[in-house]
User: What shape does this take?
Amino acid sequence: MSEIILSTEDLSKHFIGKSSLLGKIRGKAPLSIPAVDGVTIQIESGSTVGLVGESGCGKSTLGRTLVGLYPATGGSLTLLDRQMGIKRSLQERRLVQMIFQDPFASLNPRMKIRDMLTEILLFHKLVEKERVEERCVELMNLVGLPVNALDSYPRQFSGGQRQRIGIARALALEPKVLIADEAVSALDVSVQASIVNLLLDLKRDLGLTMLFISHNIAIVRQISDRIAVMYLGRIVEEGPTEDVFNNPQHPYTKLLLSSVPKMTPGSKLGEAPTGELPSMQAKYLGCRFMSRCPIAIDACKATDPQLIQVSSAGHLAACINL
Assistant: This one.
């Protein structure tokens, strides 16, 4: 069995809203918005877990909590058998790195790529000073960019090239886990394919462990060993990629898959989840998907379904109708 690099147990992240002046006078407590609400997940060494779901379901918040950009509200996060606290040491922060959705916004526009990488390498004491240039060249080669890219500013690159620089910057810290947060959604379709292929090559050559976050379940299928489907802050289905695609169990997963365009003659676009995503502020006694579920029954109003093993070993889903 492969080593578990990262795991969470009932992890949650709640955001506290601002109280109005009238609310403060009345002593009313501010709203607590559960963006991530009890997520348990494991990522094995050298594997890629794809995290999918609609916009607003909490995917990016989970990724940022794993990286340490957001402190967890509850639950636990274990990395390399060490439980991470709210404050992480410099070495612990290095262990999980993120590739952001917008590569331009995540790069300093006033720094050349060489200076950007050099600052990281020296600050974290990853290489000796005399080896910095050599390491910068290695990173450019890893992500498929010419060496002369080191002398340019982020504005001089295309979106796909900037994303490659973002990947190089993350790899410079030699992380144990890479979080790719919608890393290809802002790119053209042809460029998306090249970045996905790059990540697959890096996974093969470096043994990368990765959480790949996307709302595009078709892209997730190409890169992931396992898929976790998220809805309103919770994982509602998880399993090996082909098991989830070929034998989806949760009604939400089935609707997501049916809405993916199929490039076959005579095929029709399936039914997508109807209605807007419910508010994260709502209090749920029963199933969170009940208001949009095509197979909901009265018992769904009172039962909060938990993940149980379904069609095969390691394939889990949370639905009382299974």
Summary: The two ends are 28 Å apart (CA to CA). The chain has a mean pLDDT of 88.
